[in-house]
Amino acid sequence: MTQIVVRALAAQLLLWPAAPVLAQTSPPEGASFASGVAALHTYAPTGNPGSTDFDVTDRAAITNLISAYSFAYDNFEAAAWLSLFTADAEFVAGEPGEPALSFTGDGFRSFWTKRMNAFRSSGEQRRHLMANILFLDQTADTAHVSVVGLLASTADAHTFSAVSSLNYEGWLVKGPDGWKIKRWHDFPDAAFSQ
Hints:
This protein is an alpha+beta fold. 31% of the residues lie in helices and 37% in strands. It has a single domain (54-194), classed as Roll (Nuclear Transport Factor 2, Chain: A), CATH 3.10.450. The longest helix has 19 residues, at 56-74. It comes from Acuticoccus mangrovi. This is Nuclear transport factor 2 family protein.
């Protein structure tokens, strides 16, 4: 009997670290696994980050676009949030220790609309505090940015908590109606309950 208990315990301990991987056998509806995609953790500028060789109007528009991303998401305005993306945008999201997920097309729109509706009815208020926008590259009609921030939450209008630091990377394009997000990577620094 003792051997059976020891073997059962050993099996549980061996499988425990793999449990999240085993549990994630298929992506949620509207997503696919994004292999080879990871959070940005390096920075090697090819030029002076303090260079003044850029269009100030474009920089202000991009900064406002990123602020609108936070404001629309935090206020559960799915249509407004989704309008910040191009029609063919890709949104990649991942947490430490989990495979990254890619969302595109109708799956992207449906998944994030449902997610915002769930937050709206949960009573939890999240705030994306975008503190650090770094322009990695910019041309007249494209931009590559890194955005670091903090995700905060208030439950029941009383309990405040920091959820995670944020690590975003975005590729933006300028079209006839201004700047939009073409690709966005969302990799918080800590895993947390959704």
